Amino acid sequence: MLILSNLIRAELYKLQRNKTFWVLIGTITGLSALLHFLILIEWWQLSGTSFDSAGLSELNALSTFTLPLFFNLIVSTLAGFYISNEFSHHNVIKNQMISGNKRSHIFLAKFIVFTLGSLIVTILIPLVIAIILVMLFGHGDVLNFTNLLYLGRAFSLFTAQFLCFTAIVLLIAIVTEDSGKTIIFTLLLSIVMFVIEKFLTYPFIKMLYENTIFHQFSEVFKFQMTNGEIIKSILIASVSLIIIMLCGVLLFNRKEIK
């Protein structure tokens, strides 16, 4: 555990020094503030969202940041310039292995820190800015106990699915070893899932899709969820994460590090 802790600290140091991470923080902060501002002054009319159904129309701008087609650009960009670049331009990973660190520990440390960075940029910043602006504009009464419970449940389940997504993107970054390819392949994956959701009607394919994290990204924001639906969401996230992480460790263990 001490070795893993040291690797995590090293990854945190690299993330803090990564320019792309700070550019994303600045960009998402500005974009989030702008979108929420436009919603609150009613300049941008956005309706029919899950937040509308929950009586939280003031938070409608958050629906943008929960769309896979949007947040995959954020996550894949961070992966491309934080993970992939280590393979193409540096000997960081090779040096970590020479130092006696297990590949599985290196992979796990990268996953933990990469996921933390992705969570901060994709979920934490938009949510915090939304709450701050809602309160500043005098709409703090919408953040009652019932709505806070809804937000807590929805974003907790969303985060569980999001962990699986960051693991997938990490795998893509390791396989491609290139920032551009990481972004492109991640975007293609999200587009394929979007097409399956919107256009394919084959029962078997739809059944498979409805048991994936991509379907859960929207399902978890339903205002009313039964206990069975919540348990199903948790199971999908848990099983998916275990499978993806096992595949990641096996792949990383067999990968040739130049």
Description:
This protein has 258 residues and is mainly alpha-helical. It contains 12 helices and no strands. Helix 5 packs antiparallel against helix 9, helix 7 crosses helix 12 and helix 8 packs antiparallel against helix 11. The chain is globular, with a radius of gyration of 19 Å. The two termini are 27 Å apart.
Radius of gyration in whole Å, from Cα? 19 Å
Annotation, overall tally of beta strands? 0
Structural class: mainly alpha
User: In what range is the share of β-strand residues?
Assistant: under 5%
Low-confidence stretches: none
3D shape:
globular
Question: What share of the residues lie within helices?
Answer: over 70%
User: How confident is the prediction overall: mean pLDDT?
Assistant: 87
Helix-strand string = HHHHHHHHHHHH
The helix tally amounts to 12
Characterize the biggest β-sheet. none
Distance between the termini: 27 Å
Labels describing this entry:
258 residues, globular, single chain, 78% helix, 0% strand, mainly alpha, 12 helices
Short description:
The chain is mainly alpha-helical and 258 residues long. It is built from 12 helices and no strands. It has helices spanning 2-16, 19-40, 50-53, 62-65, 68-88, 92-98, 103-136, 145-176, 179-199, 203-209, 213-219, 227-254.
Strand-helix topology:
Blueprint (H helix, E strand, L loop, with lengths): L1 H15 L2 H22 L9 H4 L8 H4 L2 H21 L3 H7 L4 H34 L8 H32 L2 H21 L3 H7 L3 H7 L7 H28 L4
